[in-house]
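Appendix B, record 7
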Amino acid sequence: MAHQDYVSRSRAKNKKQSPYKKNSEPTQGTSLKVKLIVAFLVVALPSFGYMLWSIKDQQPEAIVAPKVVKVKKANDLPELPEEKWTYVDELKSKEVEVGEYEVKDKGPYKMQCGSFKTRKQAESLKAKIAFAGLEAQVGKSVGTTSTWYKVYLGPYTKKRNAEKDKHKLKNNSVHGCKIWGWD
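Structure tokens (predicted):
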């Protein structure tokens, strides 16, 4: 295929006119839209004025007074119907039995935050809890096959206190703490 020389060729003329360029010749006279608005106003304003002039001397129609209804006096009220339900009278003489109950104290609580195979890991978590401002203990639990080191806090008299410390630990990136009854 032969090479074509695009440099020597002149640009093709654009036959369309750019929408951004304004016409060089301004239009002479007024547009059709302006003529229609003027014609409407010439007809509408005198018509409105004539309508107002024609109704200025008319009298309004007479207003008919509404019929007066007699109101019954207070002693003309009908008698109350007889109650067909008996619970209204029963509620007036009803006595409520007050039961006594006791709140059972479920006992002290502890919060366990981890269980590790090595004491070093447990002591590391205990130090992290200490930086949060709480005191934790490390307990040793001997199982049938291995020994576990548990990090726990407590005892707490109320579960609410344990929950408060749990949220404090969560804010200091200690997650996974569980609250148990003290055994």
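Remarks on this record: Helices lie at 32-55, 87-92, 119-131, 159-171. The CA atoms of residues 120 and 137 lie 13 Å apart.
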